[in-house]
Design a protein that fits this description.
alpha/beta, 7 strands, 21% strand, two-stranded antiparallel ribbon
Amino acid sequence: MLPRRHFFTGVPGSRWSGVSQDIESSKLYDTSDRTPQRTYTHNQYSGHVGAYFGAGMEFPASLDPAILDAPYTGSGCRLHKSHEWAYMLDDITNTYPDCWITLIYRPDAASFEWWKQAGGWNISYPNYDFYVDDAGMQHHIKLMNEAILEFSHSHNLVWHHIAKHADILKTTWKQS
């Protein structure tokens, strides 16, 4: 059985949005957060759909349940997507001990390059203004990846390659 909340994080350019769409393709997930305003299409790739939480976004990266539930009107497990969850993983596990957390890891340089290919500063959704410039984006990609790896190491999580993309790793934390 799925939990009420499933937190999902990866750095910009980690291709995490495509993975999130694969996860949400299960009819057990609430996708009522999808609107035309919350959509970015990138050529033949999956792009972005649904609510993203974070600085400068419609919804901040907050663990307040009213904020987490604000974009949804349906039922089912809610996949809460934010790059910034990487900085809040211990807080998430303490606040929502029954939730799941999925972490996506892709090396820093490959992530930054993909983010640029996917539109970079011209991506219309979500908003990347918080990162200011290329140097700021690269800095945060590095810090987020470090936080993701540190959390996974401290919880002895096992990483799995995603079949479609050999350089992307995925792991999920579930309270035992």
